Amino acid sequence: MLKIPTKASILLSTIFSVLFFIGCVVGLFFLWNIVDGLIDARYIVGGYEYITSQNRLIIHILSYMVLADVMVADIILFLLLLFVKKDEVFTKKSVALVRGVSWCCICLGLIFVAIGMYFYIAWIVAFAALFLGLCIRVVKNVIEQATEIKQENDLTV
Asked: For a tag on the chain, would you pick the N or C end, based on fewer CB atoms within 10 A?
């Protein structure tokens, strides 16, 4: 399997993180039309009740909440990559950043639960986001424990 050197991997991840954030910023300008298209697609396939203008506005607000949540998570991941680049992985700040990402995933899952009231497929996304949040919480607990062990070892020397 292809193994990328650590420094190159961190650089590549940082570039992807920045490009993803730029994509989200661009998405801010197109999200309204994309969501309108998704709402209208419900009528094309049939079998769904009409969405009122008030519900349409709720869906738009939830969609912007999703994008904001994803952008916050991306910023936190970028900051975490900066800590990794400085070899400061097992620190309280890094643990706090991983915790932040997990809460972003959990919030994302809850937002998709609300969207699931209008689009049933969103329940699958909600489940995946909530499970990812749980996985990241477990990783956070492992990193937190490793951080405590590292601090104890640093004090021993």
From this structure: N
Nearest Cα residue to 147 out of 83, 79, 82: 83
Q: Whole-prediction pTM value?
A: 0.90
The pair of three-digit structure tokens given for residue 58, joined into one six-digit string? 């709720």
Are the beta carbons of 139 and 98 closer than 8 angstroms? yes
DSSP 47: -
**DSSP track, 72-133:** HHHHHHHHHHHHHHTT--SSHHHHHHHHHHHHHHHHHHHHHHHHTTT-TTHHHHHHHHHHHH
Q: Which long-range contacts (CB under 8 A, 24 or more apart) does 3-10 make?
A: 10/81, 10/84, 10/85
Name the region of 102 (left: φ>0; alpha: ψ -120 to 50; beta: rest).
Answer: alpha
- What are the pLDDT digits (tens) for 91-134? 999 999 999 999 999 999 999 999 999 888 999 999 999 999 99
Distance CA 111, CA 119 (A): 12
Contact 102, 81 (CB under 8 A): no
Distance CA 90, CA 150 (A): 7
